[in-house]
Amino acid sequence: MTGLPFKLGVHPINWVGEDVKEHGADTTYEQILDDIAALGLAGTEMGRKYPTDIPVLKEELAKRGIQLVSQWKSVLFSDPAYRDEELAAYRKHAQFLQEMGSTVISTAEVGGSLHFDPRRTPNEKEVLRLDEAGWQSLAEGLNLAGAIAQEYGLKLTYHHHGGTVIESPEEIDKLMAMTDPVLVHLLFDTGHAYYGGADPLTVLRKHYNRIAYIHLKDIRQAVLDEARAENVDFVTCIRKGVFTVPGDGCLDFGPIFQELLERKYEGWAMLEGEQDPATHPAYEYAQNALHYIQSLISQERR
């Protein structure tokens, strides 16, 4: 990929689902890493199929010239009762990522979420939004975790995410206002921004100075409309195929790339399209996305 000032990688979630375990269940980590190398990309996030033994993981990545950029970290900071154990787990996570040479920690609050909150029961139907005490506790916890990340030379990048308590543009704005900009950065996700009701370009422009990591994800509008009409939950939306890679959905990435190029963004950006690889082959879709992005870059350079 030519003409990009930033580093482009791809998320293994395109090959193996994280939220929908049956997606790519039989795919090996060797296949994923071989595909990433064949795509000419040099960055990946940690995936659930990857080796957890650090020397083995380092060897597998190094022989293909791939960098581990980040790994998702769920946190439960909105409930103060969990803070100490959550911060201890965050430190352990930071230690692992530092050892792997990563620079950012993808971080998301799971309190109130229908699918990720360990306190929820299976028969519940909606995300429980935060009260003011919950907001305050979340902000304090994130600032503390951000300080831990800094100790290890990392940045906490908050991942606004569908099906969680930080998904709407108003929630993103509030979280950014309540947290320390030195300690808490933003993981800007185009697909989750749109899913949460925001215009991705507006989020990018408003919070650019906080953005330290990017996920490039597209949305299938017809699937989103159907899911909204049926009032289905987030994981069901994934099963329906609401997400895809850039160039295959309804989002216009032209202005987004124009903004990133003009501002000379230098961090990592990951191609991401969480969907069933049996129907939407990960390598093929990533390759198509790269061609689409290259065409956008070429247009900008004219």
From TrEMBL:
Residue intervals of the Xylose isomerase-like TIM barrel domain: 34-287
InterPro entries linked to this entry: IolE/MocC, IolE/XylAMocC-like, Xyl_isomerase-like_sf, Xyl_isomerase-like_TIM-brl
Coiled coil region boundaries: none
UniProt protein name: Inosose dehydratase
Organism: Paenibacillus marchantiophytorum
Encoding gene per record: iolE
